[in-house]
Design brief:
Layout: H1 2-20, H2 28-57, H3 59-73, H4 78-83, H5 85-95, H6 97-123
Length: 127
């Protein structure tokens, strides 16, 4: 995680530097936009890889934790959960909906930044 933050800070410094240097040469605006698009693509890849890792490899551990919470907070026993496992898996997946939505909202926001940046470059509305 530390490497992601360092890379992001370096990209932000470059974006700010290129934005300040656009008064010297207007082409620096394009460098700033390319750095912005690059860091957005980088974070999209990181978010998707984390999403795949989290939801494909740790799903069973999260389900076990969910079952333990159910046993501790309700009058259910672990045997009742095992007997109706399909029902509780379905119920568990509904609880993950909010987490998934947040992750995909992040990706959508970054894609929006990329699309608007590319449109601005193509139209020449950067300066």
């Amino acid at each position: 995680m530390k490497n992601h933050i360092i890379l992001t800070l370096i990209a932000l410094v470059l974006i700010i530097t290129f934005s300040l240097l656009r008064q010297v040469w207007s082409g620096f605006s394009y460098f700033a936009i390319v750095c912005l698009v690059g860091i957005c693509i980088y974070w999209i890849v990181i978010i998707i890889l984390d999403y795949v890792y989290e939801y494909k490899t740790k799903l069973l551990d999260k389900f076990k934790f969910y079952c333990a919470k159910l046993v501790n907070s309700t009058k259910l026993t672990s045997q009742e959960i095992e007997e109706n496992k399909a029902f509780y898996i379905k119920k568990f997946k509904k609880t993950l909906w909010k987490e998934k939505l947040i992750e995909w909202a992040k990706v959508g926001f970054l894609l929006t930044i990329i699309i608007f940046s590319i449109i601005a470059i193509v139209k020449g509305d950067i300066i």
